[in-house]
Design a protein that fits this description.
Two copies of one chain form a homodimer. The first copy, chain A, is built from five helices and eleven strands. In chain A, helix 2 crosses helix 3. Chain A has one domain: Rossmann fold. By secondary structure, chain A is of the alpha/beta class.
């Protein structure tokens, strides 16, 4: 998606270790208009896909997910990274974060991810695909089906995209970054 | 807001200790259409208020905040509950959560909350007003101004609303709950 790529070149920052910082418009401060246009692009790309619900992970997946859900007129649910004290009947999966070098749990109430539901997973980044794998695990525990996965930004030099596509999952990423070597942002054309 | 009150009566659950659970449509699973209509209601109620930016706290404030920001065509920023390793120049404030009986920090980059900015704070719940007080503290550190505060649900039997209104802040809550005694939901008319 051209607008997103141009914005990444304009406002994204490369940090050491293959980290792309987009916190001025995606995951801390958010450009709400861009979020809506990215949601519209997902709706175009997943046209024809059965979607009963949009699933994401807190916190930075919530904004694009709720906008996609709004456009599709379906509910959205976000996996929590802490098990809330007021929640029972929890589906849980462990996710390893390379960025933070530690594991965390993601969880969804078994009331909001259920057998037979067809779900579109939306998240901000696809890198090693660990959060996506955690969601696949939760869906499998629930008997739900992930009919597609949409990411704002994919780093194709990490393994997540390959891993998900090799499982036959329909993956769409709005900007695919091939390399961040020498702190230069290079897109996959 | 009538639609929200009816939905709370239909799908909200009372738990011991004055807790109202709305995780089937607000803060775990989200009704995206309702979120947009609530955002439209905030825009109506804050018509005439100067707003350069919408501010919220992760995670459950993000969905309504980003929709208000979309409608107003301004950016949104969410305070994080953990200090990210890739962030420098951080404004930080300690918030005590009665629900969880513990304190946590909220933080915003000093790049995204700046001197002179006029901000509308949006959050899902107003109870004791501790998160709101934390945001006022961050804004004061930044030299920004909170020109209004909008909450989906206010519990008027707790002190937050009184505390904020006594400071002269324009507070709007879409559903005000007067009592949850005996697990019965009673609205303020």
């Amino acid at each position: 998606m051209r607008e997103l790529k141009e914005r990444i070149l304009k406002d994204g920052c490369c940090l050491e270790g293959g980290i792309l910082k987009v916190d001025s418009f995606i995951n801390h401060q958010m450009d709400a208009g861009l979020m809506m246009r990215m949601a519209e692009e997902f709706v175009r790309r997943f046209k024809g896909t059965e979607i009963d619900k949009v699933v994401t992970v807190e916190a930075s997946g919530i904004a694009p997910a709720v906008m996609v859900a709004y456009l599709l007129d379906v509910p959205a649910v976000f996996a929590k990274k802490k098990v809330p004290s007021t929640m029972s009947g929890i589906l849980k999966s462990e996710v390893f974060s390379f960025t933070k070098s530690r594991s965390y749990n993601i969880c969804i109430s078994d009331k909001y991810l259920t057998k037979g539901e067809k779900c579109l997973f939306i998240d901000d980044f696809l890198a090693n695909g660990n959060a996506a794998a955690g969601i696949l695990d939760l869906a499998s525990q629930a008997g739900a089906e992930i009919t597609g996965m949409g990411f704002l930004i994919e780093k194709s030099f990490q393994r997540g995209g390959e891993m998900l596509r090799s499982k036959g999952i329909h993956v769409e990423s709005l900007a695919i970054i091939e390399s961040l070597d020498n702190c230069e942002i290079r897109f996959n054309e």
